[in-house]
Every structure is written in structure tokens, then in C-alpha cells.
Design a protein that fits this description.
Shape: elongated
Helix content: 25-40%
CATH architecture of the largest domain: Up-down Bundle
Distance between the termini: 42 Å
CATH topology of the largest domain: de novo design (two linked rop proteins)
Bound molecules: zinc ion
Largest sheet: 5 strands, antiparallel
Number of helices: 6
Strand order of the largest sheet: 3-2-1-4-5
CATH class of the largest domain: Mainly Alpha
CATH superfamily of the largest domain: Recombination protein O, C-terminal domain
Length: about 230
């Protein structure tokens, strides 16, 4: 039986002599493992469908892709080495967190995120950092950036990351193994969380604050999902 899904290619690997295995993040069913047959020959009709980041409407018969209508290739991501590494981290993160059930919120976030990465010419790290904040939100680990996640009080002067719970807490609620979040890194995370993807280009983030924030977000990702991403 055939099915049609809107999906993004998040992983692509060789299979047998001429085939490719791809992993799709679909709107309708979450993660789907699929095969592209004969696509390594230069004239193959579906050879474009093995490319990472491709967003299209895929028709599948069982596990085999029988047709694909491209919606966007996001090819500009692949053309630039910095963008490519940032994008590759985003796809790796998706491959880790997406399960075989739909998550429309995360799917739409992913499309916005890839669009910004491809077309907005943003400084390195903006899109990946914002995307990590969104991932926590759409998987039930929303970061509490306004108030202490534990007592709901104001942060006052200091705030801390509790990696065991994935929460941001105040001084009173912090324990010895929490990591203090600098003012700069905290401001950076708030700006990123509050600014929609299409307005990211209006942000002027401090480079050190961004580095620190990204480091904390990557560490939180590792604690939540037990797998690490490579630092860009
Ligand atoms: Zn507190």
C-alpha cells in the first residue's frame, strides 16, 4: 500500500551497490526509515531525494520511495561549510530525539530553522542555539527563562543550570552540582528564545555570551538524551 508524507531527509547512507538508505522526519508519522533504489547511478530519477536537508512530498510503497516532489532543497546550507556543520548538528539532534510518532510542533520548528539557516546569512551558532532551546520545549523540557523552575521566584542576581533535571533555578534552589549561568549567557538564551526565526537577523548577540549559551545548551542536550553533538 502506498502512502504520501511531507518529510525532511535527516540521514542518508549507502546501501548495497546502488541503493541508499534514508531517514525521514515526517510531519505525519515522525521518523521513517526508507530506501531509494538505484539512485547512485547518474541518471536515476530520484537521485536528488538522497540529499540531506531536502524537504519534499514523498510517496512510499512499503519502505521504498517511489516518487518525491521537492518543496525546498535548502541547498544554500550545503554550499557554505560553517552553515553545513551547523545544519549537520541540527539533523543529528533530530535523528536522536525524533521517534516514530508525529510531532507537528517540532516539524514546523525544523522547517523555520532550516529556512533561517539557508537564507538569512546569520552569524554562526544563532540557529543551532535557538533550535536546541526549541527542542527542549517541544519534548517536555521547556527551559524556564523568566522565573526559577523550582520555586517560581525571581532569579534576583544569579541563576543556575541544573543538568540533572534540565531546569534553570535560582540561588536558593540550586544544589552543589548546578552550574552558574553568566549574565551574558542568560541574556543570550532569553533573546534567542523570545525572537522568532524570521527576526533573528535583527539580533546582535555578544560572541562570548553565545559561545557560553551554546555550551550550556549542548551539555543539557547530552544530559537529556544521553548522546552528544559535536561542537561547531
Ligand atoms: Zn528557586
Amino acid at each position: 500500500m502506498e502512502k504520501k508524507v511531507k518529510a525532511i531527509v535527516i540521514k542518508s547512507s549507502d546501501y548495497k551497490e546502488k541503493d541508499k538508505h534514508i531517514v525521514l522526519f515526517s510531519l505525519e508519522e515522525g521518523k521513517i526509515f526508507a530506501t531509494l533504489r538505484g539512485v547512485k547511478s547518474p541518471n536515476a530519477k530520484l537521485k536528488f531525494a538522497k540529499e540531506l536537508f531536502l524537504f519534499g512530498e514523498f510517496v512510499l510503497a512499503g519502505e521504498t520511495v517511489t516518487s518525491c516532489e521537492v518543496i525546498d532543497t535548502f541547498y544554500d546550507i550545503v554550499k557554505d561549510v560553517d552553515r553545513y556543520y551547523e545544519g549537520a548538528n541540527i539533523l543529528t539532534a533530530l535523528n536522536i530525539v525524533v521517534g516514530e510518532e508525529p510531532n507537528a510542533q517540532l516539524f514546523l520548528e525544523t522547517l523555520k530553522c532550516l529556512k533561517s539557516l539557508a537564507y538569512e546569512n546569520l552569524p554562526r551558532g544563532y540557529v543551532l542555539s535557538k533550535f536546541l532551546i526549541s527542542i527542549f520545549g517541544s519534548l517536555g523540557y521547556r527551559l524556564s527563562l523568566q522565573r526559577c523552575a523550582s520555586c517560581a521566584g525571581d532569579f534576583a542576581i544569579k541563576r543556575f543550570f541544573n543538568f540533572n533535571t534540565g531546569e534553570i533555578v535560582c540561588l536558593n534552589c540550586s544544589s552543589y552540582d548546578c552550574v552558574e549561568i553568566s549574565k551574558l549567557a542568560y541574556a543570550t538564551m532569553r533573546h534567542l528564545a523570545e525572537t522568532p526565526y524570521e527576526k533573528l537577523s535583527t539580533l546582535k548577540l555578544n560572541a562570548r555570551g553565545l559561545d557560553e549559551a551554546l555550551g550550556l545548551l549542548l551539555k543539557n542536550f547530552e544530559f537529556r538524551f544521553s548522546k552528544s553533538l559535536s561542537v561547531i
